[in-house]
Write a structure and sequence with these properties.
alpha/beta, five-stranded parallel β-sheet, 5 helices, globular, NAD(P)-binding domain-containing protein
Length: 155
């Protein structure tokens, strides 16, 4: 059975690629592109309800289970993650919060494939998926999914 997660990113072009590559182990049930939308959607999901439709959501929309983790793309800062985490109950959120280190964000964002080069998007998504899947697998093995904690990934 897939583990439900929520992903925050800036680009549906990359988000859809990453979401499809994370399956079948992890199901991106909701893909969110802004912090205000994340506050609303995560609150709704944690209450066991379905969020309103979002044309940017490239996730599966399978809201039958609450998410176990929130994975942030490299565009999200430590402050944004903590703001959302606190909004969702802080240490009582019941979510693993997975984000990039600042150093990795700074380095990787310089090489982000702006401009729509599909092969570059695929390479970026392949690399991002491998890193994300590795962190999520480690958290699953350690029993940390579905439990509050902030966890970092590198490049």
């Amino acid at each position: 059975m897939s583990i439900p997660i929520v992903t925050l990113g800036m680009s549906g072009a990359v988000g859809s690629r990453v979401a499809s590559r994370l399956r079948p182990e992890f199901d991106t049930i909701q893909f969110i592109t802004s912090l205000p939308r994340a506050k609303s959607d995560l609150t709704t999901l944690l209450a066991g309800k379905s969020p309103p439709p979002d044309p940017d959501n490239v996730g599966s929309h399978n809201f039958s289970q609450k998410p176990q983790a929130v994975v942030f793309g490299r565009a999200y800062t430590d402050e944004a993650v903590e703001e959302l985490r606190q909004h969702c109950g802080g240490s009582e959120s019941g979510l693993a919060w997975v984000m990039s280190t600042k150093e990795a964000r700074d380095k990787v964002m310089k090489g982000f494939p702006y401009g729509g080069d599909q092969e570059a998007f695929n390479r970026y998504a392949d690399k991002t998926t491998a890193i994300t899947k590795g962190v999520l697998e480690d958290l699953r093995r350690e029993g940390k999914l579905g439990r509050d904690g902030v966890y970092y990934y590198g490049e």
